[in-house]
Design a protein that fits this description.
The chain is built from nine helices and six strands, in the order βαββαβααβααβααα. Strands 1-3-2-4-5-6 form a six-stranded parallel sheet. Helix 4 runs parallel beside helix 6.
């Protein structure tokens, strides 16, 4: 089975035979595009996914892109066009690689930023030692970052529901990276996390533990908050699929090409161990080809949701749907709408 990656121009020039390939649209960051140059040093997680059938991915992911920006039709007009233009393929899934750059942005915010809008605490703000690695993290900042990311997913959900109601949104966590001074391109890009950890005074022997808390927290956010808010949402739990880089190294180490990107073989290992079985379970219901019918303009959230997004607050919980996701933490909206697997 083949996974082919195509560009927006390939789509517009009608170079893709969707009678032979399942149409999938993708967006996001470097884990969905490339993490160094030349690109084949890392490739991407998308390159190594095996759906169990022939899939054509039209990919809008690029390094540095923020999840919070992905639904913006002005910033990403081509992606929005592919989701709303008449005559587009009948997209069966939306692959999203996102959230990592948003987290890095919040890690880089210094002591001059209010603690509710950054992730790291500085020495006079550290919690008691008994709190473990979480003593270095701002809980209020984490809540606000998650709300920002949740708002982005709600908008992507609205775009999906207005045009391809049976489409599944598929995303991944990340894996346990080691904060270290290991940039890409001989220092042209990165390092991404280590400078923030260093500036916050966090002891170097705690960097891996703190990063692990953040990756686990991101997983919990996707599963407990996003998945309970929107239906048809698939999370690939990619944690623990690779060998972490050794602390203090500055180049390729184990499965990692640099601080936050795997090598091509590392992504291949991760896909096989943590992605392919779930992807194949869902993709068995995705069909090739047919062109979508009349497609609506880019929809906007309505009612309570629109008001809550405008105010930066979560919307009230929707009534539980039959076959819902079940109980989650009290601080999380309980159950959203659900879709079947069939695309």
């Amino acid at each position: 089975m083949t996974t082919e990656i195509y560009s927006h121009q390939d789509l517009m020039d009608d170079r893709i035979d969707f009678n032979q390939f399942v149409p999938v649209i993708a967006h996001g960051d470097s884990w969905g595009s490339f993490g160094s140059l030349p690109p084949w040093i890392t490739g991407s997680l998308f390159n190594h996914m095996d759906f169990g059938k022939d899939v054509a991915i039209v990919n809008y992911a690029m390094p540095g892109q923020l999840l919070r920006d992905l639904p913006d039709p002005k910033r990403f007009a081509k992606f929005n066009l592919a989701m709303t233009l008449r005559g587009m393929p009948n997209w069966r899934a939306m692959l999203i690689s996102g959230g990592g750059n948003d987290l890095i942005d919040w890690i880089r915010r210094g002591e001059g930023v209010d603690i509710t809008h950054r992730i790291l605490r500085y020495p006079d703000e550290w919690l008691p030692v008994s709190q473990g690695p979480t003593r270095y993290l701002s809980q209020a900042g984490w809540v606000n970052l998650c709300q920002e990311l949740l708002n982005a997913y709600v908008k992507l959900d609205a775009l999906r529901d207005g045009n391809y109601a049976q489409m599944e949104i598929v995303t991944h966590v990340y894996d346990y990276m080691t904060p270290r001074f290991a940039p890409a391109l001989n220092g042209v890009s990165g390092p991404w996390m280590a400078p923030g950890f260093h500036d916050a005074g966090i002891p170097a022997d705690q960097w891996q533990a703190v990063a692990r808390v953040l990756v686990d927290g991101f997983h919990d956010f996707l599963v407990n908050q996003v998945k309970s808010k929107i239906g048809g949402f698939v999370v690939l739990d990619t944690r623990g699929g690779s060998i972490p880089a050794a602390p203090g190294t500055t180049g390729i180490s184990n499965d990692w090409a640099n601080e936050i990107h795997l090598t091509a073989s590392g992504y291949d290992k991760l896909a096989k161990a943590k992605c392919d079985a779930t992807l194949q379970d869902h993709a068995q219901y995705w069909t090739t080809g047919a062109t979508a019918g009349v497609v609506a303009p880019s929809p906007q959230p309505k009612g309570l949701l629109a008001k809550s997004l405008a105010k930066g607050k979560p919307a009230a919980a929707r009534p539980p749907a039959k076959g819902g996701a079940g109980k989650v933490a009290k601080s999380v909206v309980k159950v959203g709408k659900k879709r079947g697997k069939r695309g």
